[in-house]
């Protein structure tokens, strides 16, 4: 059951199963080489984690995301990272920078191994380390509370980029952030973080999300206008 849960989790984090996609038991069981009973146990584990939900009409689906969800997740992520960089980068605390280096090394390792799901997980760990530069426990806890939602967004980001960016390229984007952190330039870190994920992700995948609200549509348009000026 644990192996089935790990394999199914990897499919979601690699972007093979997208938010809102139906998990077809017969197809997944054949692909994973398991019978239905352990697969159903695995689905219960992922349901407890929040990666899948049960729909009365569709059965088990990957937790859906609307454009308004993405708007809330990305804007909150932006503000938490922005505060952490402002507080942490000028401090240049060696042990905190070393934590970022260690997180990047792990990301580079799994990227070299070609493990897309692990790249999503290690990418999040790297961003947690960047937030940790602030030495602000409550700020880091607030960021960690977004783990599930960010994992889903990051998996969608990876899927949107995979036609033109390798996993090694993904790792290099994170290396650029690390280099700017080491250089002690908060403004440059802010700019790189903004280009790093949300802007390109939204330009390429934003149309695929249902449930746009006035706030989220205005935000998406603002992001796109900004992108055309740089």
What is the strand and helix layout of this fold?
Elements: H1 2-13, H2 25-32, H3 36-49, E1 52-55, E2 59-62, H4 67-88, H5 94-112, H6 116-131, H7 137-144, H8 147-161, H9 167-183, H10 186-196, H11 198-205, H12 214-228
Antiparallel strand pairs: 1-2
Strand content: under 5%
Stretches where pLDDT is under 50 for at least 5 consecutive residues are: none
* Major pleated sheet: 2 strands, antiparallel
Spatial gap, N to C terminus: 49 Å
| Total number of distinct structural domains | 2
Question: In CATH terms, what is the architecture of the largest domain?
Answer: Up-down Bundle
| CATH-assigned homologous superfamily of the largest domain | GntR ligand-binding domain-like
How many helices in DSSP terms?
Answer: 12
3D shape = globular
As laid out across the biggest beta sheet, the strand order is 1-2
Mean pLDDT: 89
What's the helical proportion of residues? Answer: over 70%
CATH topology name of the largest domain, in short, is Four Helix Bundle (Hemerythrin (Met), subunit A)
Concise account of the structure shown:
This protein is 72% helix and 3% strand. By secondary structure, it is mainly alpha-helical.
């Amino acid at each position: 059951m644990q192996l089935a849960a790990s394999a199914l989790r990897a499919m979601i984090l690699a972007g093979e199963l997208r938010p809102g996609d139906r998990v077809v038991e017969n197809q997944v069981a054949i692909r994973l080489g398991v019978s239905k009973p352990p697969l159903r146990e695995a689905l219960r584990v992922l349901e407890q984690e929040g990666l899948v939900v049960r729909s009365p009409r569709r059965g088990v689906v990957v937790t859906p995301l609307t454009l308004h969800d993405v708007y809330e997740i990305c804007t909150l992520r932006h503000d938490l990272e922005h505060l952490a960089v402002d507080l942490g980068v000028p401090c240049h605390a060696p042990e905190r920078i070393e934590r970022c280096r260690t997180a990047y090394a792990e990301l580079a390792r799994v990227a070299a191994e070609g493990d897309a799901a692990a790249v999503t997980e290690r990418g999040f760990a790297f961003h947690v380390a960047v937030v940790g530069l602030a030495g602000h426990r409550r700020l880091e806890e607030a960021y960690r509370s977004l783990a599930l939602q960010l994992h889903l967004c990051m998996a969608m980001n990876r899927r949107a980029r995979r036609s033109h960016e390798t996993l090694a390229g993904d790792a290099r984007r994170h290396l650029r952030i690390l280099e700017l952190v080491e250089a002690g330039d908060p403004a440059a870190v802010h700019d790189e973080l903004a280009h790093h994920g949300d802007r390109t992700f939204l330009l390429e995948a934003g149309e695929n999300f249902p449930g746009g609200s006035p706030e989220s549509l205005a935000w998406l348009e603002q992001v796109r206008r900004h992108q055309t000026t740089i």
